[in-house]
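task queued by scheduler; priority normal; single chain, no ligands, no partner chains; default sampling; output format set to C-alpha cells
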Amino acid sequence: MKLYDLSQPLNQEAPFWPLYPPFEVKFIKRKAEHGVNAQYIMTSNHMGTHLDAPLHFVTNGKTIDQIPLTWLYGPGIIVDVSEVGDLGIYTKEIVEKNAREAGGVKDGDILILFTGWSRYAWYQKPKPAGTADEERYIHMHPGPTRPFCDYLLEKKIHIWGVDAVSTDHPMNLPIGRFLPRVSTKVRAAAVKKFGEENLAKLFPDEDYQLTHNILFPKDCIHIENLGGQIEEVLGKKKAVRTTIGCFPWLFKGGEAAFARTVAFVE
C-alpha cells in the first residue's frame, strides 16, 4: 500500500479566508536561551486543509470530536472535474460520467473532487515558471449549484472535499456578492461566462453559502483546501477508487479543525 498526502502545507504564508484573521506563529523559547525551541500559534480554523463540522453552520450541531470515526476513514473516490474551468459549475452529471472509469460513486463514499485549483495554491512554484496564483485560487474557483447538493444527499455522503478554497461557488460567497474590490471583478467574470440573465437563476439569494447551509443540517460536511499529491494519485485517469482518511485533531467543541487527509492506494 502507498500513502498519498492530499493536504496543503500550512504556515504564516498561507492565504486566509477573506475577512478572517491570518495564521500567526512565533518562537516563545529558543534552544540557546531556554534549552528548548517552542512556538506559539494563533489562527482561525478556516485556512489550509481543514474539515468543517456541522456546528460551523448549525447551532448545536455536531462538533469535531463528535464526528464518528467511521465517517473519517473508508472507501472513497477521487474524481477529476477540472474541465469546468474558471467559475465553472461541477454537476452530478459530470461527476457520474467521470467516475464511471473507477466504478462510479457508491452510497456512503468519501468523495474528493479535483477541480484543478490546487495548481494555483500558494505553495506551488511562483510565476513565471510555476503556476501559483493566489487571486485566481481564491476568486475564480469552480463550485456547485443546488442540484449537486441534492445528489450528495441521495448518495448518503457524509464527507466530501475539494482542492479549492471553498466548496461553494464564488457567486454564493462574499467573494462574488459583497467583498470589497473583489466582488465587482468576480461578478463581471460571471456575467461574461453565464450571462446577466442567468445569474439569479443559477445563484439565487437563498443559495448564499449553499453547501454549508443546505448540507450541514443533514450531516453532510466537507474538507476544503485539499491538494498535495492529488494529481499524482489520479495520474492520467478521470477517477480513482481508493481508501481515504481525513484526520482532524480531537478538538472538543470545535466547529472546524485542520485535517491531514490521506489516500491509501493499494
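post-processing summary
- Residues 2-8+46-265 form a domain with the Glucose Oxidase; domain 1 fold (CATH 3.50.30.50).
- The beta strands are 2-5, 24-29, 38-42, 50-52, 73-80, 110-114, 159-162, 221-224, 239-248, 256-265.
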